[in-house]
Backbone:
């Protein structure tokens, strides 16, 4: 079960990526040509500013989860003219890439793992800088590596199940920045989660205590990420102290943190709300993002009335949708295209921390605490006080409140790729046992043209065909 060198050599594209970025002069000296050489502590520090570590999508294309969520529907004639990758994802097909194609879900994350490993392994012996500075830089790299591995294990490993995680195939744990290495094998899901937790736990000892830049990791970022990891593992009691610590850091942050009141956002027709740029977005603790091409260039992915009906009448989040295509042509009534934001924030953000903590509270039976978090978020999104309140039915039981949290996540994150991760967690959860998942394709007249039922196996991406062709003895996902 070895990954071939030619697969993981994708990380060599890092050199081109870094040289073409805006940080070229400030990054690492290239000696010899084509190889990254860092000599001083400041070199390693500057490497963490590189924009390749921020945007993890490739060539402007969204990652697979954006298309895989069941809140997405598609309409003709736009679907038939869509690119092959989107069509295959929408149909829940097994193979998304041809044997000669590199998977977009691997390219940038593998490049970034190379950078993080280089910093972790080398910064302590770099020239200049104090011991504390070096340890702080190393801690930031550990947080970045942990975030990247959490992304990858959710792509290529089953959702964490304590009864099977020690046997379920996960993703190779790579800790050496050796481009010549060829002996890679898939670690188990349990091993990858343990690795992520170890990185974050070590990072908490030396990471910057307060947030200095949204593009850089910090202790609140590590705490928020570790809490999310524990939540995905079903360790809700373990997650809560880290959520609390991360959110309690908001008042003391030198970089402004706080939920954005959508009522105060300016509308930039026809592009939707004019959201703050990433460095100025007060909802971001640790910035990681993917490009949202569907907000600017494509018409085929929309939501229907089943999703739009989830919003109350004074919910400003409806302003992130439009009823027309990018060419200004109207969809049939009931179909809406997401037209903002142009970049999807998938790092550590306040909206998700509030919603995940609310879920933990609800699952542990602390209903009032869960309601408080939900209404904190809703107050920044909804105008009318009565509509901000969590409905009485949702407050009537632990199970109903958990369902409401997931519904609120859909209102907050619809079409942004979060739903697929929720689907992974919902399948097998007794609270959601009656839920079904599919994609509907509509004709131009609004009638249903086709229904694509989700194969549960597609809650895990298959290993790309290129890798399997080069590694015939490697175990693939079903």
Residues:
């Amino acid at each position: 079960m070895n990954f071939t060198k030619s697969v993981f050599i994708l990380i060599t594209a890092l050199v081109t990526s870094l040289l073409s970025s805006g940080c070229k002069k400030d990054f690492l000296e290239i000696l010899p040509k084509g190889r990254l050489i860092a000599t001083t502590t400041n070199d390693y520090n500057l490497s963490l500013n590189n924009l390749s570590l921020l945007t993890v999508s490739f060539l402007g294309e969204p990652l697979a989860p954006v298309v895989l969520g069941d809140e997405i529907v598609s309409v003709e004639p736009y679907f038939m003219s869509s690119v092959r990758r989107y069509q295959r994802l929408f149909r829940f097909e097994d193979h998304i890439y041809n044997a000669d194609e590199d998977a977009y879900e691997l390219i940038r994350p593998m490049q970034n793992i190379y950078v993080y490993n280089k910093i972790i392994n080398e910064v302590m012996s770099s020239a200049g800088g104090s011991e504390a500075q070096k340890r702080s830089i190393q801690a930031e790299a550990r947080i970045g590596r942990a975030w990247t591995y959490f992304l990858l294990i959710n792509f290529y490993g089953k959702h964490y199940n304590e009864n099977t995680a020690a046997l379920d195939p996960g993703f190779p744990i790579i800790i050496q920045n050796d481009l010549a290495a060829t002996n890679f094998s898939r670690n188990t899901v349990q091993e990858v989660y343990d690795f992520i937790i170890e990185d974050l736990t070590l990072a908490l000892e030396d990471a910057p205590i307060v947030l200095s830049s949204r593009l850089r990791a910090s202790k609140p970022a590590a705490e928020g990420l570790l809490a999310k990891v524990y939540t995905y593992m079903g360790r809700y009691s373990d997650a809560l102290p880290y959520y609390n610590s991360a959110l309690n850091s908001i008042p003391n942050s030198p970089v402004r943190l706080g939920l954005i009141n959508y009522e105060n956002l300016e509308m930039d027709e026809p592009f939707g709300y004019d959201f703050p740029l990433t460095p100025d977005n007060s909802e971001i603790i640790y910035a990681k993002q993917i490009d949202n091409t569907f907000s600017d260039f494509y018409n085929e992915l929309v939501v229907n009335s089943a999703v739009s009906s989830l919003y109350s009448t004074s919910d400003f989040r409806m302003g992130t949708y439009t009823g027309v295509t990018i060419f200004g042509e109207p969809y049939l009534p009931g179909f809406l295209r997401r037209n903002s934001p142009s970049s999807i924030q998938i790092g550590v953000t306040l909206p998700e921390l509030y919603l995940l903590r609310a879920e933990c509270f609800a699952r542990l039976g602390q209903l009032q605490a869960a309601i408080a978090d939900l209404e904190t978020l809703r107050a920044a999104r909804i105008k009318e006080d009565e509509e901000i309140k969590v409905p009485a039915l949702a407050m009537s039981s632990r199970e109903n409140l958990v369902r409401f949290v997931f519904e609120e996540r859909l209102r907050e994150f619809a079409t942004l790729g979060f739903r697929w991760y929720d689907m992974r967690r919902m399948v097998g959860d007794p609270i959601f046992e009656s839920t079904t998942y599919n994609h509907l394709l509509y004709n131009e007249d609004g009638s249903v043209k086709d229904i694509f039922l989700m194969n549960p196996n597609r809650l895990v991406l298959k290993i790309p065909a290129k890798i399997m062709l080069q590694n015939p003895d490697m175990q693939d996902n079903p």
Q: What stands out?
A: The two ends are 15 Å apart (CA to CA). Residues 1-35 have pLDDT under 50 and may be disordered. The CA atoms of residues 355 and 408 lie 8 Å apart.
